[in-house]
Amino acid sequence: MTTSSGDGPADVAPSAARPSSLSPSRASDFMQCPLLYRFRVIDKLPEKPSAAATRGTLVHAVLERLFDHPAPERTAPRAKALIPGQWDRLLEARPELTELFPEGDEGAELARWLTEAEALVERWFTLEDPTRLEPVEREFFVETELESGLRLRGIIDRVDVAPTGEVRIVDYKTGKAPRPEYAEGALFQMKFYALVVWRLKQVVPRRLQLVYLGSGDVLTYDPVIADLERVERKLLALWEAIREATETGEWRPRPTKLCGWCDHQAVCPEFGGTPPPYPLVVVPRSEAVSPADS
């Protein structure tokens, strides 16, 4: 299905631009549904704030800020005490988050939501001991360019380095751990980060660690170079598919159970909608540029 207008350069939206880099989230979007990727990256369609995602942002901020305190003060009560202040900062940056909670209930829904955030923070202390950790990086932005020209970027929750120099990459998840058959998909983001660190520092991380606060599980994986090379090949193939879709304007929806949570059903052909006019110039498939040419 072609979701483009086919019009010339004069019709290109000023804010529209061809994708120039890939992050774990956007890679996952394309693998889940190419049309979702288009809506988020190219059309930049707005999405309603999510209570679950916002709670995750809040919990991440609290766990990051806890390491500002000396090790003996990194306790569960201290961490929970950080929640109101971090919530205020989040609201200041994104006032639209007030829409998550109904007016007229005297703050009952917000109080319940904050209590759930407290429970997630408290559970973290049963999985890791922050008094014994001294992260070298928190909320660490990483970016590298592969030989192909593809730029990879992302934000790592925490990087630990042992006295022996071994690197551990840690990511917090406020949901539940996936079933074993879905573990590989969950590790994709971590292998992506490991690839970036390897290309940047010429060091293969010793361990990748996913901390699931929703279920109290910790998933670990020790990568080797062959793993990272496979991930790199996968990302290059993915990027080639993204570039082809960008040039031709052909973004196919991929229906799954996740469609029920998508904000863009009104403009999705699978639900009887029509995508907005494609804001980029369309190139005939025979002339589409491949990543190797860019």
Helix/strand-derived class?
alpha/beta
Strand content: 5-15%
Number of strands: 6
Helix fraction bin: 25-40%
Distance between the termini: 25 Å
Number of helices: 8
Average residue-wise pLDDT = 91
For the sheet with most strands, the description reads:
6 strands, mixed
Overall 3D shape: globular
Order of helices and strands: EHHHHHHEEEHEEH
Low-confidence residue ranges? 1-14, 290-294
Determine Rg (CA atoms, Å): 21 Å
List the helices and strands and how they pair.
Layout: E1 21-22, H1 24-32, H2 34-42, H3 51-66, H4 76-81, H5 83-93, H6 108-127, E2 137-145, E3 151-161, E4 167-173, H7 183-201, E5 207-212, E6 217-221, H8 225-248
Parallel strand pairs: 1-3, 4-5
Antiparallel strand pairs: 2-3, 3-4, 5-6
Helix pairs in contact: 1-2, 3-5, 3-6, 7-8
Give a quick rundown of the structure.
With 294 residues, this protein is an alpha/beta fold. It has helices at 24-32, 34-42, 51-66, 76-81, 83-93, 108-127, 183-201, 225-248; strands at residues 21-22, 137-145, 151-161, 167-173, 207-212, 217-221. 39% of the residues lie in helices and 14% in strands.
Task: Write structural notes for this entry.
By secondary structure, the chain is of the alpha/beta class. The chain has eight helices and six strands. Strands 1, 2, 3, 4, 5 and 6 form a six-stranded mixed sheet that branches. β3 and β4 (167-173) form a beta hairpin. α7 (183-201) packs across α8. The chain is globular. It starts with 20 loop residues before the first strand and ends in a 46-residue tail after the last helix. Residues 1-14 and 290-294 have low confidence and may be disordered.
